[in-house]
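Why Trimethylamine methyltransferase? Reviewers of the renewal asked for a concrete example.
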Amino acid sequence: MRPTVKFLNNELIEKIISEARELLCVLGAEIHNDTILSMLADHGAKINCGKKHAFFTQDIIDKSLSTVPHSFKLYDVLGNETHHFHDYNVHFTPGSAAITILDYKTQKIAKPSTIDYVNYAKVINQLTNIASQSTALIPADVPENISDSYRLYLSLMLCEKPVVTGAFTIEAFAIMKELQIAVRGSEKALAEKPLAIFSCCPTSPLKWSDVTSQNVIDCARHSIPVEFISMPLSGFMAPVTLVGTLISHTAETLSGIVISQLSHPGTPVLYGGSPAIFDMRYETTPMGAIETMMIDCAYNEIGKYFGFPTQGYISLSDAKLLDAQAGCESSMGAMLAALAGINNISGPGMLDFESCQSLEKLVLDNEICGMVLRMIKGIESREDFPALPLFEELLKEKHLLIAKHTRKFLRTEHYFPGTVIDRANRARWESEGATTLWERAHQNVLRLLKQYTPSALPDSVKKDLTDLMQQEARRYGMNTLPEGCL
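Here is what the prediction returned.
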């Protein structure tokens, strides 16, 4: 039996949805995109053009909800299926868009460079419990204008896993689409086998910028999946109660669904988010707070009530180093997310309020993900009945170490983490150097970098990707890509 956790009953879910729908119809949403305002007006919405404000209707919301796919699949750069976002299937992906990286030697943060991103891509390609990569770091050695496309380029060149990404400008979308088409061979092939998911974030409360809303309709027009990342802050940009925050999150996410589905009915979406409580003592947004995790699990239940696949930023920490707090918050979030059945769990590797990525934490989180994935398989009988023969063998042999039953089910019943997790007795631990978690994690990073095998993507495709990226870089005054990117 698969273990699960729930925070809401159907009656409360229905009340939250009803209130959210009323907000959209009575208060509306601020949308700074004339194309979308015109589209909403064509479907019967009342528009205040001067204030860039749209008042939705119940019919528009119902029509949009009716066309959202209840599941979709994702494929790696070689065209192999890696994800099926459906029901309670769980997949992990690293946190995205970190502006700093934690340096192992100094234990201080630094601005990432191309080589940091290259090392990240090489490591994530080999972490078996994290199913996708994200554009996790923002390299500071390229112009901001190409930052989005450059990250996607490096990911597609170096790692075979599908990508969770996004664009901070409208102009970046075109080249990011072309990079994906270069991998698949055609726009039709890309629609049939999606390679990336774009994160699109409304601004709380109930606001869409020109950039983000344009990303939504651009993705819809090209059948590129979108995850909606609503970010209400309890007690600051949303009511202080968890239910009030869920109403805000639901309204913002529904507004995104409407924009997406009216642009192109049937566009795949993930009902996602990155809400948090607001800690008024420090003026911070703790992603490791238990209430933040409760909100994530609860809005996932609302998404599942609609029948949609879900996403959540939850398996991450606000700690500044790879310490006990980092392990506590990340593992608790991963466990709750998996029990709740969040389909795409975002966060591994992340520290410091979603701003810092750590390769050492990433390899630790890979083991946390492995334990969690084992846990949700639950407990089931594996030739345990009748039990008498097994115990007769145990009494006779004094152990079951090499019993047929043990050899048959050992690997399926027990998850064996890598060396980043210490399970040796004290004497052995001391004899092997008495290493700390931080040291073992770094040793694992070095091992993965050394044994990295280049992506099996054909050289001709890699050349096409590089030509596209170099052409884009030249548009913004960068004649050569940074050393080490290839």
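The chain has one domain: 1-379+417-486. This is the kind of structural detail the renewal will allow us to pursue systematically.
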